[in-house]
Amino acid sequence: MKITAPCVVSLTWRLEDAQGQLIDELVDPMEFFYGGNDLFAKVEEALLGQEPGFNTSVHLEPEHAFGDYQPELVCFEARELFDTALEEGMQFDGLPEGSATIGMPQETIYTITEIYPQHVVLDGNHPLAGIALRMHAVVRDVREATISEVGAGSVSDTGVTILSTLPPPPQVH
Asked: What are the CA-CA distances from residue 41 to residues 37, 93, 162 (Å)?
């Protein structure tokens, strides 16, 4: 079967930065909904019409991947607002309760980038924002999408995407 929207593709890949440093490697094939929100548009473009066994390398500038880095998504929060032991790299859904920061999106996942005795630096950018990437992908399988996958625009109702396949830092919810 050739890749056309909508369908489900099974991929393995090696994701590197522009200097060739490994960021992530998907050794075991994972399924993605083609024609929805599971894959970057540039990756879908490279896969269109292809079949299992197809190899490709796709260069992704930040605007085609995780976006440009936005310094306005970085803020400081009082250390006392966090009731848990903190480590750099931990992630939180939204700002902590009691936050005095105004104008920051609440629905964003924030990553702790620095910890000081009196405050914590939170970054609402994706960890790979602002980074050009190279993805070396291999199509392992292609199948028809189910009715529920087409309705969800994803291989699962949780919306598994290319974003969620990267190794996540510890999260606190």
From this structure: 9, 26, 11
